Amino acid sequence: MVDLKDKLVLALGERDGVPGPALQACAESAGAEVIYVSTQCFV
Amino acid sequence: MAAPRSGQVPVLPVIRATRFVLAHAPDLVVAGSKPRRELSRDGPALRHQVRAHLRAFEAAVVYPPHQVMLGNLAPEALREIPRPWHEHPLLGARPEGPAGGMIDEATFYAWLARADTSNLVLLDESFAERVRGALNGAKVITAGPEALRRAAAGGAEPFYDGADQIAGVVLPGHEDDESLAAPILLENLATKVTGALALRRLLDEVGGDEPVDFLLGCGEEAVGDRYQRGGGNLGKAIGEFAGVRTAGGADIKAFCAAPVHALIMAGALVASGLHRRVVVVGGGSLAKLGMKFRGHLAAGYPILEDVLAGVAIDIVADDGYSPVMPLDAATVHRIGDASAPHQMAAVLTVAPLQARGLRLSDVDRYAVELHNPDITESVGSGDVPTRNYQIIAALAVKAGEITREEMPAFVRDHGLPGFSPTQGHIPSAIPYLPHAIAGLATGALQRVQFVAKGSLFLGRMTAMADGASLLLERNPRCARGKEMN
User: Fold this and answer.
1) Contacts of residue A43 in chain B, CB cutoff 8 Å?
2) CA quadruple A7, A13, A18, A22: dihedral positive or negative?
3) CB contact at 8 A, B458 and B345
4) What's the whole-model pTM score?
5) What is the tens place of the pLDDT at every residue in B357-384?
6) pLDDT digits (tens, 9 = 90+) for B86-109
7) Hey, is the C-beta of A20 within 8 angstroms of any chain B C-beta?
8) Which residues does chain A have within 8 Å of residue B369's beta carbon, measured at their own beta carbons?
């Protein structure tokens, strides 16, 4: 388990998996600062 | 065009037929976006490696997923064929099927030259002689090898016939216009040709005596010059090249979701009485050739993304046997809808079914993003259709229709293995259309839902995704089975 409190996070999501904004919401709720968020499509 | 009449009762639209064309173009893999960038950076050694992994036309024809695209093999049959599928060719398979056909690279190049209305395609003299039959008397411009090499060095885009043989070039459309640069024109011509070949095949085989009123383009190309990049209406250009004279046209732009959006709009145009016959057309994506080539090289596979795919889908008023597209069961992902995968799936699957009093289990098959997993898994992109089916199965658990333990069975019973080439908008649900039309006509299927997604966020104008879905149902007036149309 990683403690994300006060950590800087790069949130790289995927369309058919977990999108970037969802990762951002989870990381921020755990006390992290999201400094980059992106969603990619790999097909 | 049929003039809408006051008080007219809307007719039920049906999807009558679908045709695909696969143009095998292994020598254009190096012109795909990813290979072009990486070959430019890594040089001749990588180019040699790529060339050593290109497939012959015969190998592409007997490749099981391509036979599913052509309608010669049911998608479910792929489950019985060990993977990777290229190691288990369907010997004796033909490049023709009830759902479409394949053409080889030389034939495709001949069509490129025939599709050129601006005198920008030059064919090598000896190559032109070799494909004289495919040119069928069309007037094309030819040049010698040295002239073609000079043109390529000066900004023309070459297309090859083997390692170092230039089969021809596309000249830039304007020396100061990035939107008309030669590589972009080759992309757009490739899209036009594959879309037109699919349309011609459809019209040759289905309803040839019925005029097409409107063409809806659904491809992901961007046609236009520097003042209107992506201006579009390739649908109309595809129709012209396919010999259609009766139709108008326009394009629908919605990334990979565009075909399903276009089908819904086509259905609405027919239902309203504005048009009697609408054909949704889309050509292939040259940029996506070789997109996963690194993974294929690492796995020792041939480079599997070596075909351009075109599609044409016929929408008419209820004919008494083709599957119906109830418009109250068609839906789109709205701006205010949440877009995480499970939320998107709920909007596109559960909501329209509930509105008709249906459960997820009432749908025989879901057609989702049908990318061939042999193409995507080798580069770490996973099995896209299976991931989508797992989300739908999870929604069925949430709705209390099945237990968690029954999810794998739901995925198998209501899902499909992926079989489509990674051609952008092409894999987005529609490759199952020919099989669904056949199954709904015979009664093997009663109901199929087509679910498409589009990655709007890639264009940097929004963080949103997009999606659209439609339901196809067995025609209630269908009294007897009918062969695949």
Assistant:
1) 369, 371, 376, 381, 384, 422, 427
2) positive
3) no
4) 0.95
5) 999 999 999 999 999 999 999 988 899 9
6) 999 999 999 999 999 999 999 999
7) yes
8) 16, 43
